[in-house]
């Protein structure tokens, strides 16, 4: 029976230490949280600049709700688009140096909408093998031929592009890879896009707000500009609120507005959220002190970890993965940290390749040096006991 098979599949997840567990917080997002009745020091959110519970954003959201109400009432192209949405899109476009931007409800919806709007049957998508699931799903939705090149391997990508006779080509990559923390070679990718007449879609979910001058992202950091470059940034990570945006040439954004199904056929995001995001962009722009503190914490963690068997992946971003390898051991280490009052998530396949299960440590400007030292000492001790 169907239910019997489903229950057997769940049991198989347990056997392979792959079943996920959802935790419920009873406190705002931050480094010190209350979960299941326990006080914990958390290293697991993507709130890199500590804005998710920032009082200025709280007040901006309250003001937005008083001004605009709670819901938008309809899709953007019916009657659910407000002046504050226009203001946010204009602010975001200017901030990342593009002609125009389009605001989506989530990053997943943005990626699932961008790619199918740009290419289809008879076309080709070239995707980094470690791209986020939303980009993988977006590529599959295009119905184009999907070619996955080895992680950040420009030589292999060049061979694939040269051998393709597709009508239209699209290269798509994360900028900062969410499970490894490394940064894509964007200049090289754009050079290949120019050479082979391809679109280049960059998902800067984990770079926007953190990298580049004033937190303008990885594309600004690399000083790149091109009409064929399409930039996606999320607004629920470093920006501390919710949603995402796509920015680029004005005609490209107009085409996405006309053709991206995940934009057209969904209720518009609450206008109050857009008002909070306007304040968030201001805080990001003025956030050099936050980013400087964050960089110091990253360097501190890397210097204080003394791991010999587990591998700390090289990353200059707030994502600091510790690869353990075995699923069960990784879960056991995460549980030991939990018992010690430290919340660090265990990441296992299929999120990461088989044999590379890891702890995904994420740092925030809200962490202190003492917080980082406590984590490093705990990991050092656990490895010696493992």
CATH-assigned homologous superfamily of the largest domain: Type I PLP-dependent aspartate aminotransferase-like (Major domain)
What ranges have pLDDT less than 50 throughout 5 or more consecutive residues?
none
What radius of gyration results from the CA coordinates?
A: 21 Å
CATH fold call of the largest domain: Aspartate Aminotransferase, domain 2
Tell me the CATH architecture of the largest domain.
3-Layer(aba) Sandwich
Largest sheet: 7 strands, mixed
Domain module tally = 2
- Helical segment count: 14
Summary of the model, kept short:
With 386 residues, the chain is of the alpha/beta class.
Detailed description of the structure:
By secondary structure, the protein is of the alpha/beta class. It has two domains: 23-49 and 287-385, Alpha-Beta Complex (Aspartate Aminotransferase, domain 1), CATH 3.90.1150.10; 55-285, Type I PLP-dependent aspartate aminotransferase-like (Major domain) (Aspartate Aminotransferase, domain 2), CATH 3.40.640. It has helices at 2-15, 55-68, 83-96, 107-118, 133-141, 154-163, 186-195, 218-221, 250-259, 261-264, 271-285, 288-304, 327-339, 369-385, and strands at 32-35, 38-42, 100-104, 124-128, 145-149, 169-174, 198-203, 229-234, 244-248, 311-312, 319-325, 342-343, 346-347, 357-362. Strands 3-9-8-7-6-4-5 form a seven-stranded mixed sheet, with helices on both faces. It has a four-stranded antiparallel sheet with strand order 10-11-14-13, covered by helices on one side. A three-stranded mixed sheet has the order 1-2-12. The model has no long low-confidence stretch (mean pLDDT 96).
């Amino acid at each position: 029976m169907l239910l019997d098979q489903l229950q057997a599949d769940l049991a198989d997840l347990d056997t392979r230490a792959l079943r996920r567990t959802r935790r419920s917080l009873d406190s705002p997002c931050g480094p010190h949280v209350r979960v299941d009745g326990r006080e914990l020091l958390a290293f697991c959110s993507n709130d890199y600049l500590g804005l998710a519970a920032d009082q200025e954003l709280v007040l901006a959201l309250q003001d937005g709700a008083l001004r605009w109400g709670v819901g938008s009432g309809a899709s953007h192209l019916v009657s659910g688009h407000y002046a504050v949405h226009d203001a946010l899109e204009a602010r975001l476009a200017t901030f990342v140096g593009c002609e125009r931007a389009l605001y989506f409800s989530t990053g997943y919806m943005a990626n699932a909408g961008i790619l199918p709007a740009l290419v289809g049957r008879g076309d080709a998508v070239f995707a980094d093998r470690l791209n986020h699931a939303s980009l993988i799903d977006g590529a599959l939705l295009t119905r184009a031929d999907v070619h996955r090149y080895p992680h950040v391997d420009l030589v292999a990508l060049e061979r694939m592009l040269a051998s393709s006779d597709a009508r239209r080509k699209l290269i798509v990559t994360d900028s900062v890879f969410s499970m490894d923390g490394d940064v894509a070679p964007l200049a090289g990718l754009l050079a290949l896009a120019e050479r082979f007449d391809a679109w280049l879609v960059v998902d800067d979910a984990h770079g926007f707000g953190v990298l580049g001058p004033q937190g303008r992202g990885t594309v600004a950091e690399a000083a790149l500009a091109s009409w064929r470059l399409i930039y996606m940034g999320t607004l629920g990570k470093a920006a501390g609120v919710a949603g995402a945006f796509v920015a680029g040439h004005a005609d490209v954004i107009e085409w996405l507005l006309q053709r991206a199904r995940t934009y057209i056929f969904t209720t518009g995001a609450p206008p109050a959220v857009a008002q909070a995001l306007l304040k968030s962009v201001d805080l990001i722009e003025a956030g050099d002190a936050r980013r400087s503190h964050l960089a110091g914490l990253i360097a501190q963690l890397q210097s204080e970890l003394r791991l010999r068997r587990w591998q700390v992946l090289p990353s200059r971003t707030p994502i600091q993965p510790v690869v353990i390898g075995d699923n069960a051991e990784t879960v056991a280490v995460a549980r030991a940290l939990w018992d010690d009052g430290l919340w660090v998530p265990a990441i296992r396949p299929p999120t990461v390749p088989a044999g590379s299960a890891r702890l995904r440590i994420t740092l925030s400007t809200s962490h202190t040096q003492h917080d980082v030292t406590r984590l490093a000492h705990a990991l050092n001790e656990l490895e010696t006991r493992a």
